Amino acid sequence: MAPCTIRLCSNKSQSNTFKENGVTFHRYPKDPDIKSQWVAATRRFNWNPSQYSLVCSQHFTEDCFINLKNRRRLLASAVPTLYLPIVSFATDSDEPKPSTSNPELQKKNDLTSPATTSIPTPKKPFPGNPSDYTTPSGKRLCETILKLNKKLENKNKRLKNLRERTRYLGEKIAFYRKKFRECLDKDF
């Protein structure tokens, strides 16, 4: 009953089935990095998917799927790339600028003209998207690299926490040694 969340896509999960139309619907992934790439692909700004939000299979390439008996599974690292709407934004070159010979008036026009902002595009994570690769081994390698990068990031966070704890405990030991020496000096 839920519609596809890609902008301008009219597929609904109630009216399209895999057996009839070959269309499947997929929930947003739990991995925050891949989920953010899916949200960027919807071309909806300031929007977050709910737990019921879906994307239809028409927005994925065939190599993003694993076909089972009567099911079709999406690879964990797949990102929608097909039939995405093109959203354009006005730039400075799109707006005609008034030409004046008076420099004071020209400066005033420049100050009053609205500034345009560009929306930053998310950086493509190294080594890229597994759907960019044409061979299954390339996809597996890409997925492995992405998983290892995530593990490395977690290990680096843990290492940083352990270093901070070691520094804190070292300071604590130095403090108690100083207090111990002060106590020894007072007794003698």
From TrEMBL:
Entry's localization field: Nucleus, Nucleoplasm
> What organism, scientifically named, is this protein from?
Chrysodeixis includens
**Pfam family for this entry, one:** THAP
Q: What is the lineage of its organism?
A: Eukaryota, Metazoa, Ecdysozoa, Arthropoda, Hexapoda
Residue segments, region Disordered:
93-137
**Which SUPFAM superfamilies does the record cross-reference, listed alphabetically?**
Glucocorticoid receptor-like (DNA-binding domain)
Supply the alphabetized keyword list. Answer: Cell cycle, Coiled coil, DNA-binding, Metal-binding, Nucleus, Transcription, Transcription regulation, Zinc, Zinc-finger
Q: Which GO terms describe its cellular component?
A: nucleoplasm
Query: Where do the coiled-coil regions begin and end?
Result: 142-169
Q: Where is the composition biased (Polar residues)?
A: 111-120
| Boundaries of every THAP-type domain copy | 1-83
> What is the name listed in the Swiss-Prot or TrEMBL entry for this protein?
THAP-type domain-containing protein
